[in-house]
């Protein structure tokens, strides 16, 4: 009798405090994330210009335009090129860096810090530095090419449509790989030394040890890194803003960049939100695949 | 480590070291180049980008700090970063604590609702948000971005805190409750200090993200007195397109706080990354 009374009293009390503890986060999150997200879905069916009071409903016209517009197709192609090459290059570079840091005998922490530091830089600053390094007249790259007698392959790295996207991709690999390196490094350090010793006693060389012991055991880290790098590559924005502004022409316009340009540069916010919904669906699909894969792994383990 | 040091040095180790060193030089060069160029005059930079500075040229720093809005922008960035973080580490752990400890149907629903936010990138809701801030009167002052940053970190923060709270035993809280301590008191005096590692990760990860953020502050604080450092630098790239010395000095000044924070809090930066890896 007494005990149940205590429990009932306790429950009521718990309930009231929980509401007050959750409320601030709930209000802010609803107001500044969820409401604008739902507004985005609504606006994607309108031809709103961002200023006028009357918002005209136009059905699926924006999505039809996305389906047909060559500029959007170009942006989607660029997004896919950026995503695929960043996922591959960042993960390969990150894994190599992690192995080097793990194996090197001296200055291990210093090397780890050096590889990691670019991650901490703003995309704007990093983009500016690379813009100057790649500058046609005064840049370090062309100066080095001149010094080594390779002037023939000199080009305006950011002004030439054939190289602009590549320049952005490679400088982003420089910036972001250190992040994934840390994740791989944690994976490498979790591998029991005995396994590698056993493989080596069985006559496996360094490559075979890596291929058949280390790499399979890094599968968890790899899944996380691949998914993270893919989502981050879809969100790439700062570097493009400072290095090329989407140009030359539309050569470096990606999905995130076209959303910004269409909405705030060209005053077509309805169309911009429709593009944003496409981005959202892409990221949602990737996130769901990631959750699936990670769950499956947990079951297997 | 200690065991390894006794082994003799092999040629393989030397090759490995040299390879690592070369790659490290490649990685460090752009940052070194940036800091070096900040101490060169503009004509020196244009004459020979790779050469070392001839003297210790500090005019660009002096100009930026006395003749431009840059000091104000630095202050804005600092206020924005510290203000958002302070509010985050009050609001988010409280919500996470209530969700984890109550564990009822409705709190689980709230939890799922919060987690959903992790999948929504800023670009998806930035266009309506822009208009919304204007109608709410939060456009062009630092209050708007602070609220947006807190709201944007709820999903990720609640995930981090709740998963950590699962490992924190309830016994102390229960005995404190019997002693008549209020729930707020229990949380702040007993639970919050135990959440130190998560709070450190949050401070480091979110602080860095806000300090470096560009798109949102550019949209919401486009001009005037409230521009942040990164936005100010972005405009310099356009305005001072031929005055690289100014921009190098500006980027150096923005990198220094990051460098100091990194060197003094290295452990937390590395830990923060591995906790950030859970984020989808």
Overview of this structure, please?
The complex is a heterodimer of chains A (301) and B (280). The longest helix of chain A has 42 residues, at 2-43. By secondary structure, chain A is an all-alpha fold. The radius of gyration of chain A is 25 Å and the shape is globular. Helices cover 75% and strands 0% of the residues of chain A. Chain A has 13 helices and no strands. Mean pLDDT of chain A is 85; it is low at 1-6. Chain A folds into 2 domains: 1-33; 44-300, MetI-like (MetI-like fold). Chain A has helices spanning 2-43, 61-68, 70-103, 108-116, 123-133, 140-147, 161-189, 193-201, 206-217, 219-234, 238-243, 255-265, 269-300. Chain B contains 15 helices and no strands. Chain B is globular and about 75 Å long. With 280 residues, chain B is mostly helical. Chain B has 2 domains: 2-58, no CATH class; 62-276, MetI-like (MetI-like fold, Orthogonal Bundle), CATH 1.10.3720. In chain B, helix 9 (171-178) runs antiparallel to helix 10. At the A-B interface, helix 1, helix 3, helix 4, helix 5 and helix 6 of A face helix 2, helix 5, helix 6, helix 7 and helix 8 of B. Chain B: It is found in: Cell membrane. Chain B: It comes from Paenibacillus agaridevorans. Chain B: Keywords: Cell membrane, Membrane, Transmembrane, Transmembrane helix, Transport. Chain B: Belongs to the binding-protein-dependent transport system permease family. Chain B: One of its GO terms (cellular component) is plasma membrane. Chain A: It holds the Pfam family BPD_transp_1.
**Count of the domains of chain B:** 2
What share of the residues of chain A does DSSP label as strand, in percent?
A: under 5%
CATH superfamily of the largest domain in chain A: MetI-like
Shape of chain A: globular
Question: What is the helical fraction of chain A, as a range of percent?
Answer: over 70%
Ranges of chain A with pLDDT <50 over ≥5 residues? 1-6
Radius of gyration of chain A: 25 Å
Q: Let me know the average pLDDT of chain A.
A: 85
Quaternary structure of the protein: heterodimer
Average pLDDT number of chain B: 85
Q: How big is the Rg of chain B?
A: 24 Å
Largest sheet of chain A: none
- The CATH topology of the largest domain in chain A is MetI-like fold
Membrane topology (chain A): Multi-pass membrane protein
Transmembrane segments (chain A): 17-38, 80-101, 113-133, 163-186, 215-234, 271-291
Pfam families (chain A): BPD_transp_1
Subcellular location (chain A): Cell membrane
């Amino acid at each position: 009798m007494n005990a149940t009374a205590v429990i009932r009293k306790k429950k009521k009390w718990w309930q009231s405090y929980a509401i007050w503890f959750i409320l601030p986060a709930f209000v802010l999150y609803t107001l500044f994330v969820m409401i604008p997200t739902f507004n985005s879905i609504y606006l994607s069916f309108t031809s709103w210009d961002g200023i006028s009071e009357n918002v005209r409903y136009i059905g699926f016209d924006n999505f039809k335009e996305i389906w047909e517009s060559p500029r959007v197709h170009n942006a989607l192609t660029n997004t896919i090129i950026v995503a695929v090459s960043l996922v591959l290059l960042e993960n390969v570079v990150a894994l190599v860096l992690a192995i080097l840091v793990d194996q090197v005998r001296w200055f291990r922490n210093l090397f780890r810090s050096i590889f990691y530091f670019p991650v901490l830089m703003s995309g704007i600053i990093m983009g500016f530095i690379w813009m100057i390094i790649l500058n046609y007249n005064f840049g370090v790259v062309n100066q080095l090419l001149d010094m080594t007698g390779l002037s023939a392959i000199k080009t305006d790295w950011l002004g030439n449509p054939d190289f602009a996207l590549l320049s952005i991709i490679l400088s982003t690999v420089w910036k972001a790989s250190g992040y994934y390196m840390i994740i791989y490094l944690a994976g490498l350090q979790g591998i029991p030394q005995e396994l590698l010793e056993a493989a080596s006693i069985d006559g496996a060389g360094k490559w075979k040890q890596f291929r058949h012991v280390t790499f399979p055991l890094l599968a968890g880290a790899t899944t996380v890194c691949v998914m993270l790098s893919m989502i981050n590559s879809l969100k790439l924005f700062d570097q493009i803003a400072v290095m090329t502004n989407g140009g030359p022409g539309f050569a470096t316009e990606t999905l995130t960049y076209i959303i910004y340009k269409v909405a705030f540069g060209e005053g077509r916010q309805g169309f911009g939100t429709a593009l944003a919904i496409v981005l959202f669906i892409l990221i949602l699909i990737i996130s769901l695949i990631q959750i699936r894969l990670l769950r499956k792994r947990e079951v297997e383990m | 480590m200690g065991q390894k040091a006794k082994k003799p040095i092999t040629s393989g180790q030397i090759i490995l070291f040299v390879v690592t060193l070369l790659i490290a030089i490649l990685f460090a060069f752009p940052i070194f180049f940036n800091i070096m160029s900040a101490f060169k005059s503009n004509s020196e930079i244009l004459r020979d980008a790779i050469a070392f500075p001839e003297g210790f040229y500090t005019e660009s720093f002096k100009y930026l700090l006395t003749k431009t809005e840059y000091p104000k922008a630095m202050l804005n960035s600092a206020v924005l970063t510290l203000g958002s973080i302070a509010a985050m580490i009050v609001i988010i752990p409280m919500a996470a604590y209530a969700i984890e400890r109550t564990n009822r149907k409705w709190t689980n629903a709230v939890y799922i609702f919060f987690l959903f936010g992790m999948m929504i990138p800023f670009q998806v809701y930035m266009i309506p948000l822009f208009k919304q801030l204007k109608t709410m009167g939060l456009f062009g002052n630092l209050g708007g971005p602070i609220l947006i940053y807190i709201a944007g970190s709820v999903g990720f923060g609640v995930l981090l805190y709740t998963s950590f709270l699962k490992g924190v035993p309830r016994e102390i809280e229960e005995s404190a409750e019997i002693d008549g301590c209020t729930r707020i008191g229990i949380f702040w005096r007993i639970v919050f200090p135990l959440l130190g590692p998560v709070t450190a990760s949050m401070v480091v990860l979110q602080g860095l993200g806000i300090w470096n953020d560009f798109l949102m502050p550019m949209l919401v604080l486009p001009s005037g007195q409230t521009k942040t450092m990164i936005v100010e630098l972005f405009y310099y790239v356009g305005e001072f397109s031929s005055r690289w010395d100014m921009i190098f000095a500006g980027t150096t000044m923005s990198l220094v706080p990051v460098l100091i924070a990194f060197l003094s809090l290295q452990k937390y930066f590395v830990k923060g990354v591995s906790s950030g890896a859970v984020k989808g």
